[in-house]
Amino acid sequence: MSVVPDVALTNGVSIPQLGFGVFQIPPEETRDAVLTAFEVGYRHIDTAEMYGNERGVGEALRASGLTREEVFVTSKLNNGYHRRDDVLRAADQSLADLGVDQMDMFLIHWPLPTIDVDYVETWKAMIEVYRAGKARAIGVSNFQVPHLQRLLDETDHVPAVNQIEVHPYLTNESVRAFGAQHGIATEAWSPIAQGLVLGDPVLVEIAERVGRTPAQVTLRWHLQRGDIVFPKSVTRSRVEENFALFDFELGDAEMSALGALNRDQRTGPDPDTFARVPA
Q1: Any idea what the Cα angle at residue 51 is, between residues 42 and 182, rounded to 5°?
Q2: Catalytic residue flag (residue 81)
Q3: Which of 2, 84, 92, 223 measures 20 to 30 Å from 252, CA to CA?
Q4: CA angle, 247 then 260 then 268, to 5°
Q5: At what angle do helices 145-154 and 173-182 cross, to 10 degrees?
Q6: β-strand partners of 21
Protein backbone atom coordinates (compact mmCIF):
# COMPACT_ATOMS: atom_id res chain seq x y z
CA MET A 1 0.00 0.00 0.00
CA SER A 2 1.27 3.46 -0.92
CA VAL A 3 2.30 5.79 1.87
CA VAL A 4 0.52 9.12 1.55
CA PRO A 5 2.75 12.07 2.47
CA ASP A 6 1.64 14.45 5.20
CA VAL A 7 1.50 18.23 5.01
CA ALA A 8 2.52 20.00 8.21
CA LEU A 9 0.14 22.78 9.20
CA THR A 10 1.33 25.87 11.06
CA ASN A 11 -0.10 24.71 14.41
CA GLY A 12 1.83 21.43 14.25
CA VAL A 13 -1.02 19.24 13.06
CA SER A 14 -0.25 17.00 10.07
CA ILE A 15 -2.80 16.31 7.34
CA PRO A 16 -2.53 13.56 4.70
CA GLN A 17 -2.02 15.22 1.32
CA LEU A 18 -4.41 12.80 -0.42
CA GLY A 19 -7.87 12.23 0.98
CA PHE A 20 -11.30 10.97 0.01
CA GLY A 21 -14.14 13.43 -0.63
CA VAL A 22 -17.79 12.59 -0.04
CA PHE A 23 -19.42 15.55 -1.81
CA GLN A 24 -22.64 14.44 -3.56
CA ILE A 25 -22.47 10.90 -2.16
CA PRO A 26 -26.00 10.12 -0.92
CA PRO A 27 -26.19 9.67 2.86
CA GLU A 28 -27.33 6.06 2.53
CA GLU A 29 -24.27 5.23 0.37
CA THR A 30 -21.66 7.13 2.38
CA ARG A 31 -20.82 4.44 4.93
CA ASP A 32 -19.94 1.85 2.30
CA ALA A 33 -18.11 4.35 0.09
CA VAL A 34 -15.91 5.48 2.97
CA LEU A 35 -15.26 1.88 4.04
CA THR A 36 -14.09 1.13 0.50
CA ALA A 37 -11.77 4.15 0.68
CA PHE A 38 -10.35 2.88 3.96
CA GLU A 39 -9.75 -0.56 2.41
CA VAL A 40 -7.86 1.04 -0.47
CA GLY A 41 -5.69 3.03 1.95
CA TYR A 42 -7.20 6.49 2.40
CA ARG A 43 -6.92 7.93 5.90
CA HIS A 44 -8.29 11.43 5.26
CA ILE A 45 -12.02 12.05 4.80
CA ASP A 46 -13.50 15.39 3.72
CA THR A 47 -17.17 15.98 4.47
CA ALA A 48 -19.43 18.93 5.35
CA GLU A 49 -22.65 19.73 7.14
CA MET A 50 -24.07 20.81 3.78
CA TYR A 51 -23.48 17.35 2.29
CA GLY A 52 -25.85 15.71 4.77
CA ASN A 53 -23.65 12.63 5.11
CA GLU A 54 -21.58 13.21 8.25
CA ARG A 55 -23.40 10.35 9.98
CA GLY A 56 -22.37 7.97 7.23
CA VAL A 57 -18.75 9.02 7.68
CA GLY A 58 -19.08 8.37 11.41
CA GLU A 59 -20.62 4.96 10.83
CA ALA A 60 -17.71 4.04 8.57
CA LEU A 61 -15.21 5.21 11.17
CA ARG A 62 -16.76 2.97 13.80
CA ALA A 63 -17.08 -0.02 11.45
CA SER A 64 -13.58 0.25 9.99
CA GLY A 65 -11.56 -1.13 12.88
CA LEU A 66 -9.23 1.86 12.55
CA THR A 67 -8.37 3.92 15.59
CA ARG A 68 -9.60 7.49 15.72
CA GLU A 69 -6.00 8.70 15.55
CA GLU A 70 -5.47 6.92 12.23
CA VAL A 71 -8.07 8.95 10.33
CA PHE A 72 -8.09 12.69 9.61
CA VAL A 73 -11.65 14.02 9.42
CA THR A 74 -12.64 17.42 8.04
CA SER A 75 -16.10 18.95 8.15
CA LYS A 76 -17.42 22.38 7.23
CA LEU A 77 -19.82 24.90 8.70
CA ASN A 78 -23.08 25.15 6.80
CA ASN A 79 -24.05 28.45 5.22
CA GLY A 80 -27.07 29.09 7.42
CA TYR A 81 -25.06 29.07 10.65
CA HIS A 82 -22.68 32.03 10.47
CA ARG A 83 -23.82 33.79 13.65
CA ARG A 84 -21.73 33.06 16.75
CA ASP A 85 -24.24 30.93 18.66
CA ASP A 86 -25.15 29.05 15.50
CA VAL A 87 -21.46 28.29 14.83
CA LEU A 88 -21.06 26.79 18.29
CA ARG A 89 -24.23 24.70 17.95
CA ALA A 90 -23.29 23.58 14.46
CA ALA A 91 -19.87 22.40 15.63
CA ASP A 92 -21.49 20.37 18.38
CA GLN A 93 -23.94 18.89 15.89
CA SER A 94 -21.13 17.87 13.55
CA LEU A 95 -19.34 16.17 16.43
CA ALA A 96 -22.54 14.31 17.34
CA ASP A 97 -23.28 13.28 13.76
CA LEU A 98 -19.71 12.12 13.19
CA GLY A 99 -19.70 10.38 16.58
CA VAL A 100 -16.34 11.87 17.58
CA ASP A 101 -15.12 14.04 20.43
CA GLN A 102 -12.97 16.21 18.17
CA MET A 103 -12.81 17.01 14.48
CA ASP A 104 -9.37 17.17 12.93
CA MET A 105 -10.36 20.17 10.82
CA PHE A 106 -13.42 22.44 10.81
CA LEU A 107 -13.85 24.97 8.01
CA ILE A 108 -16.12 27.88 7.16
CA HIS A 109 -17.60 26.51 3.95
CA TRP A 110 -18.18 29.84 2.14
CA PRO A 111 -17.36 33.45 3.09
CA LEU A 112 -20.78 34.74 1.90
CA PRO A 113 -19.47 38.33 1.72
CA THR A 114 -22.78 39.81 0.57
CA ILE A 115 -24.96 38.63 3.48
CA ASP A 116 -25.57 40.51 6.71
CA VAL A 117 -23.36 38.26 8.88
CA ASP A 118 -19.71 39.31 8.65
CA TYR A 119 -17.42 36.34 8.02
CA VAL A 120 -14.87 37.87 10.41
CA GLU A 121 -17.37 37.42 13.23
CA THR A 122 -17.98 33.88 12.03
CA TRP A 123 -14.21 33.27 12.12
CA LYS A 124 -14.03 34.55 15.69
CA ALA A 125 -16.65 31.95 16.66
CA MET A 126 -14.62 29.28 14.86
CA ILE A 127 -11.65 30.30 17.01
CA GLU A 128 -13.81 29.62 20.05
CA VAL A 129 -14.53 26.13 18.70
CA TYR A 130 -10.79 25.56 18.28
CA ARG A 131 -9.87 26.86 21.73
CA ALA A 132 -12.56 24.65 23.27
CA GLY A 133 -10.74 21.63 21.81
CA LYS A 134 -13.55 20.65 19.46
CA ALA A 135 -11.27 20.81 16.41
CA ARG A 136 -7.53 20.18 16.15
CA ALA A 137 -7.32 22.86 13.47
CA ILE A 138 -9.64 25.35 11.82
CA GLY A 139 -9.64 26.89 8.39
CA VAL A 140 -11.72 28.31 5.60
CA SER A 141 -13.04 27.31 2.21
CA ASN A 142 -13.58 29.43 -0.89
CA PHE A 143 -11.95 32.52 0.62
CA GLN A 144 -10.41 35.00 -1.79
CA VAL A 145 -7.34 37.12 -0.98
CA PRO A 146 -9.31 40.11 0.40
CA HIS A 147 -11.33 37.76 2.63
CA LEU A 148 -8.15 36.18 3.97
CA GLN A 149 -6.47 39.54 4.48
CA ARG A 150 -9.35 40.71 6.69
CA LEU A 151 -9.01 37.63 8.88
CA LEU A 152 -5.31 38.32 9.31
CA ASP A 153 -5.90 42.02 10.00
CA GLU A 154 -8.81 41.64 12.42
CA THR A 155 -8.10 38.42 14.36
CA ASP A 156 -5.13 36.69 15.94
CA HIS A 157 -5.62 33.27 14.33
CA VAL A 158 -4.40 32.36 10.83
CA PRO A 159 -6.48 29.73 9.01
CA ALA A 160 -4.67 26.41 8.76
CA VAL A 161 -6.02 25.75 5.28
CA ASN A 162 -8.05 27.38 2.52
CA GLN A 163 -10.05 24.90 0.46
CA ILE A 164 -10.61 26.41 -2.98
CA GLU A 165 -11.44 25.34 -6.50
CA VAL A 166 -8.17 24.45 -8.25
CA HIS A 167 -7.52 22.46 -11.41
CA PRO A 168 -5.53 22.96 -14.65
CA TYR A 169 -8.25 25.23 -16.07
CA LEU A 170 -8.34 27.31 -12.85
CA THR A 171 -4.88 27.34 -11.27
CA ASN A 172 -5.95 30.07 -8.80
CA GLU A 173 -2.36 31.24 -8.41
CA SER A 174 -2.98 34.49 -6.53
CA VAL A 175 -4.94 32.78 -3.76
CA ARG A 176 -2.44 29.93 -3.54
CA ALA A 177 0.48 32.38 -3.40
CA PHE A 178 -1.15 34.42 -0.63
CA GLY A 179 -1.72 31.23 1.32
CA ALA A 180 1.88 30.13 0.89
CA GLN A 181 3.09 33.56 2.03
CA HIS A 182 1.08 33.34 5.25
CA GLY A 183 1.37 29.64 6.08
CA ILE A 184 -2.13 28.73 4.85
CA ALA A 185 -2.12 25.35 3.10
CA THR A 186 -4.15 25.06 -0.10
CA GLU A 187 -6.72 22.29 -0.45
CA ALA A 188 -8.00 21.80 -4.01
CA TRP A 189 -11.64 20.93 -4.53
CA SER A 190 -12.86 19.92 -7.99
CA PRO A 191 -9.26 18.84 -8.75
CA ILE A 192 -10.19 17.41 -12.16
CA ALA A 193 -12.79 20.14 -12.87
CA GLN A 194 -15.63 17.62 -12.61
CA GLY A 195 -13.99 15.76 -15.50
CA LEU A 196 -13.83 18.82 -17.74
CA VAL A 197 -10.05 18.71 -18.14
CA LEU A 198 -9.72 14.99 -18.79
CA GLY A 199 -10.14 15.24 -22.56
CA ASP A 200 -7.72 18.11 -22.99
CA PRO A 201 -5.21 17.16 -25.73
CA VAL A 202 -2.21 18.34 -23.70
CA LEU A 203 -3.26 16.27 -20.70
CA VAL A 204 -4.14 13.24 -22.83
CA GLU A 205 -0.74 13.35 -24.54
CA ILE A 206 1.12 13.54 -21.22
CA ALA A 207 -0.96 10.70 -19.80
CA GLU A 208 -0.19 8.49 -22.79
CA ARG A 209 3.50 9.32 -22.53
CA VAL A 210 3.78 8.43 -18.82
CA GLY A 211 1.42 5.46 -19.04
CA ARG A 212 -1.20 6.82 -16.65
CA THR A 213 -4.79 8.00 -16.92
CA PRO A 214 -5.55 11.69 -17.37
CA ALA A 215 -7.11 11.74 -13.89
CA GLN A 216 -3.96 10.30 -12.32
CA VAL A 217 -1.77 12.81 -14.13
CA THR A 218 -3.97 15.71 -12.99
CA LEU A 219 -3.97 14.54 -9.38
CA ARG A 220 -0.20 14.02 -9.51
CA TRP A 221 0.17 17.59 -10.81
CA HIS A 222 -1.71 18.82 -7.75
CA LEU A 223 0.44 16.80 -5.36
CA GLN A 224 3.69 18.02 -6.85
CA ARG A 225 2.48 21.62 -6.57
CA GLY A 226 1.80 21.03 -2.88
CA ASP A 227 -1.99 21.00 -3.03
CA ILE A 228 -3.99 18.78 -0.68
CA VAL A 229 -6.55 16.85 -2.75
CA PHE A 230 -9.50 14.56 -2.03
CA PRO A 231 -11.01 13.10 -5.20
CA LYS A 232 -14.43 11.47 -4.93
CA SER A 233 -15.84 8.33 -6.52
CA VAL A 234 -18.19 5.56 -5.45
CA THR A 235 -16.67 3.12 -7.97
CA ARG A 236 -13.96 0.99 -6.36
CA SER A 237 -11.79 0.89 -9.49
CA ARG A 238 -11.78 4.69 -9.64
CA VAL A 239 -11.10 4.94 -5.91
CA GLU A 240 -8.09 2.69 -6.43
CA GLU A 241 -6.99 4.60 -9.53
CA ASN A 242 -7.11 7.91 -7.67
CA PHE A 243 -4.92 6.46 -4.91
CA ALA A 244 -2.22 5.10 -7.26
CA LEU A 245 -0.25 8.32 -7.51
CA PHE A 246 2.98 7.70 -5.67
CA ASP A 247 5.03 5.51 -8.01
CA PHE A 248 5.52 8.07 -10.79
CA GLU A 249 6.46 11.73 -11.15
CA LEU A 250 5.89 14.46 -13.70
CA GLY A 251 8.85 16.37 -15.09
CA ASP A 252 9.23 20.13 -15.03
CA ALA A 253 8.10 20.47 -18.64
CA GLU A 254 4.97 18.42 -17.98
CA MET A 255 4.16 20.41 -14.86
CA SER A 256 4.56 23.66 -16.78
CA ALA A 257 2.44 22.43 -19.69
CA LEU A 258 -0.42 21.56 -17.36
CA GLY A 259 -0.15 24.85 -15.52
CA ALA A 260 -0.29 26.69 -18.85
CA LEU A 261 -3.78 25.30 -19.47
CA ASN A 262 -5.25 27.87 -17.07
CA ARG A 263 -8.38 29.63 -18.38
CA ASP A 264 -9.63 31.03 -15.07
CA GLN A 265 -12.62 28.77 -15.71
CA ARG A 266 -14.73 27.85 -12.69
CA THR A 267 -16.92 24.78 -12.38
CA GLY A 268 -18.51 26.14 -9.19
CA PRO A 269 -19.78 29.48 -7.82
CA ASP A 270 -17.76 32.67 -7.61
CA PRO A 271 -16.87 33.19 -3.91
CA ASP A 272 -17.17 36.97 -4.29
CA THR A 273 -20.85 36.81 -5.20
CA PHE A 274 -22.12 33.46 -3.91
CA ALA A 275 -24.69 34.13 -1.21
CA ARG A 276 -26.86 31.01 -0.95
CA VAL A 277 -27.98 30.49 2.63
CA PRO A 278 -30.22 27.46 3.15
CA ALA A 279 -33.39 28.02 5.16
Answers
A1: 65
A2: no
A3: 2
A4: 90
A5: 20
A6: 46
Question: Which candidate in 51, 119, 130, 169 is catalytic?
Answer: 51
Residue 76 phi/psi, 5-degree rounding, is -135, 145
CA distance linking residue 264 with residue 268, whole number of Å: 12
User: What are the helix (H) ranges across the chain?
Assistant: 27-40, 54-64, 84-98, 119-131, 145-154, 173-182, 201-210, 214-225, 236-243, 252-259
The dotted CATH code for 6-194+219-248 is 3.20.20.100
0.90 surpassed by pTM: yes
Alpha carbons 153 and 84: distance in angstroms, whole number: 19
Q: Which residues contact 68 (CB under 8 A, 6 or more apart)?
A: 61, 100
Helix axes 214-225, 201-210, angle to 10 degrees: 90
Walk along the chain (279 residues) and give the pLDDT tens digit of each residue. Answer: 678 999 999 999 999 999 999 999 999 999 999 999 999 999 999 999 999 999 999 999 999 999 999 999 999 999 999 999 999 999 999 999 999 999 999 999 999 999 989 999 999 999 999 999 999 999 999 999 999 999 999 999 999 999 999 999 999 999 999 999 999 999 999 999 999 999 999 999 999 999 999 999 999 999 999 999 999 999 999 999 999 999 999 999 999 999 999 999 999 999 999 998 754
Side chain identity, residue 231: P
